[in-house]
Amino acid sequence: MEELPVVDLESVTRELAESGRRVKVLWQKPDSLAFVARGREYRSEFHVNDSDEFTYMIKGTMHLHYRTPEGEEKVCVIPEGSTNWMPGNTPHSPRFPPDAFALITERGRREGEVDRFQWYCPKCDELLHEESAVVDDYTKDFVTQAYKNFFGNEAHRTCKKCGNVMPKPEGF
Question: Can the keyword Metal-binding be found in this entry's annotation (predicted)?
Fold first, then answer.
């Protein structure tokens, strides 16, 4: 049996803040994944994955945008020191500033499971683009790669319904 992990969350948040990195994976096992995320001010996509998720806001406040089964966008506000549970396959977009930190736990991905990253038109709410990936190793940071693919292609950011072009955030 492995040693049982004990994680000093204050040290992890300090490490992320000082290094500029966005995610620190604490453990990654077949039935359990835990990581600390630092906010991404540019986050706009909705992530869809099969696992339930548990979020604890270590520092700051998260505005967790999510889409109902009917496609309506709603926002769940998670203040510092609070938790949230979200069922699997809920399109969600965790939005919080770079000086805020969240602990997220979920089930490890099962073989063949596909994560999806969806962007919607800010003008008419039409689906703009979807990226998908088999997330076999969370340390590979598929979110960053999905963003590069989306923002690096103007056709992905152009709404086929209303013609609106989603602007690139700074840094892309």
Answer: yes
